[in-house]
């Protein structure tokens, strides 16, 4: 297919690369033209000078940008260049509200829309093994799914526009509480004089097992946080969660507390540390 990809950050760059590797004709746009040119050279694709130029003639336009205002700005520019019957797929983690806004605007333009946030982080994007949770109508989902399969291991339509973003919020709620529990577990093991690696071996095949334990326990214990999903990004996501909870009446006391803990990590200078750096505030209490 002819596909445009807008936004070549740590997620978008490899995601667009998987599309090219799968044989699609890919045109990219990035606010930093040098990065778009580098991608085009690496993947035998094309770099466009504007969003509308990238979107023109594309059957699928995917974007992975920063936050709600970026979705509105880039999405509007993309719709200006898209032909009726194309599908705009937003992989940004944003609000359900902006997803519904963009779905309405896309419908006015005769274009399909999916809010399709991803889980799996930079490693998942590089491996082409992301989980994608989608909101939108079935027809748009079926048209876009063959493209998304280039970088996903699991794709599911969760409901109408906004449902993908709401599902991603559930994902972040679960991760926040789990990472804090792991940080406390590592901290307790160290204070109790146990070998954290031995503890991991003992408990990681039982009920305590999780992806976070398998991939972050050992680095937490070593105080290594210079990789993975950044605290600044997690705080952005948890802000979306708390805003939505205020609207729908959900009670999220643990999530609110962990968000406060992440603000303490930011104050320690750890805004770009991995989210597992919750362990750092226990190892180095203020």
Write a short abstract of this structure.
The chain has 286 residues and is α/β, with parallel strands linked by helices. It has helices spanning 12-21, 33-43, 51-55, 68-81, 96-108, 121-127, 138-148, 163-191, 196-203, 211-222, 231-248, 253-267, 278-283, and strands at 2-6, 25-29, 46-47, 60-63, 87-90, 112-115, 118-119, 130-135, 152-159.
Features:
Rossmann fold; 13 helices; 286 residues; alpha/beta; 6-stranded parallel sheet; N-(1-d-carboxylethyl)-l-norvaline Dehydrogenase, domain 2
Write the layout of secondary structure elements.
Layout: E1 2-6, H1 12-21, E2 25-29, H2 33-43, E3 46-47, H3 51-55, E4 60-63, H4 68-81, E5 87-90, H5 96-108, E6 112-115, E7 118-119, H6 121-127, E8 130-135, H7 138-148, E9 152-159, H8 163-191, H9 196-203, H10 211-222, H11 231-248, H12 253-267, H13 278-283
Parallel strand pairs: 1-2, 1-4, 2-3, 4-5, 5-6, 8-9
Antiparallel strand pairs: 7-8
Distance linking N and C termini: 54 Å
- The 3D shape can be described as globular
Helix content: 55-70%
Order of helices and strands: EHEHEHEHEHEEHEHEHHHHHH
Task: Output the structural class.
Answer: alpha/beta
* CATH-defined topology of the largest domain: Rossmann fold
Fourth-level CATH superfamily of the largest domain:
NAD(P)-binding Rossmann-like Domain
Average pLDDT, rounded to a whole number, is 96
Sheet with most strands: 6 strands, parallel
Strand order of the largest sheet: 3-2-1-4-5-6
Radius of gyration, Cα only, in angstroms? Answer: 20 Å
Question: Got a strand count?
Answer: 9
CATH architecture of the largest domain: 3-Layer(aba) Sandwich
């Amino acid at each position: 297919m002819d596909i445009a990809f807008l936004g070549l950050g740590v997620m978008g760059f490899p995601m667009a690369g998987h599309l090219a590797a799968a044989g699609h004709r890919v045109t990219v746009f990035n606010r930093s033209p040098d990065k778009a040119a580098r991608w085009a050279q690496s993947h035998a694709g094309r770099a466009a000078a504007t969003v509308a130029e990238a979107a023109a003639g594309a059957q699928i336009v995917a974007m992975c940008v920063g936050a709600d205002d970026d979705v509105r700005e880039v999405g509007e520019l993309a719709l200006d260049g898209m032909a009726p019957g194309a599908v705009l797929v937003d992989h940004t983690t944003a609000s359900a509200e902006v997803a519904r806004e963009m779905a309405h605007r896309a419908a006015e333009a005769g274009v399909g829309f999916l809010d399709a946030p991803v889980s799996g982080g930079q490693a998942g994007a590089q491996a082409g093994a992301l989980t994608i949770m989608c909101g939108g109508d079935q027809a748009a989902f079926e048209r876009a799914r063959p493209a998304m399969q280039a970088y996903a291991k699991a794709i599911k339509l969760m409901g109408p526009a906004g449902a993908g973003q709401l599902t991603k919020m559930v994902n972040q709620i679960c991760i926040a509480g789990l990472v804090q529990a792991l940080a406390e577990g590592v901290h307790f093991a160290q204070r109790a004089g146990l070998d954290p690696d031995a503890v991991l071996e003992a408990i990681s095949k039982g009920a305590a097992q999780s992806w976070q334990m398998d991939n972050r326990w050992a680095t937490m214990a070593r105080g290594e946080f210079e990789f993975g999903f950044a605290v600044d990004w997690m705080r952005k996501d948890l802000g979306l969660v708390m805003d939505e909870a205020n609207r729908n009446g959900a009670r999220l006391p643990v999530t609110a507390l962990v968000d406060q803990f992440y603000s303490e990590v930011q104050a320690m200078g750890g805004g770009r540390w991995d989210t597992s750096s919750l362990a750092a505030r226990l190892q180095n209490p203020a």
